[in-house]
Sequence to fold (114 residues):
Amino acid sequence: MGKLTTHVLDTAHGCPAAGLTLRLFDSSKKLLVETTTNSDGRVDRPLLEGEALKAGTYTLEFEAGSYFRKRGVSLAEVPFLDVIPIGFGIGEAGAHYHVPLLVSPYAYSTYRGS
Fold:
């Protein structure tokens, strides 16, 4: 059974990014999921799984600016990174796709995790 998961690590503070809001959209920009990371920087259940996970393109949007402001980080009125969109494709609906985000106020990276 295929599933889509995510995990967010706050590289500026060296910890999981707890309380970060994220949204998942399909290729038509339809909102599929809106949720917040838990104390481990993960979501409590897969974003999509089983029949809901279909081949196609998706976008995850991570509310990094809001997260860092809540942490007390002083950001410019218009932060360098605010909402981080990550576009990716699902080619095999039966596979596990993990999209982690490593983030600071000034940089981020992602990859296909396991």
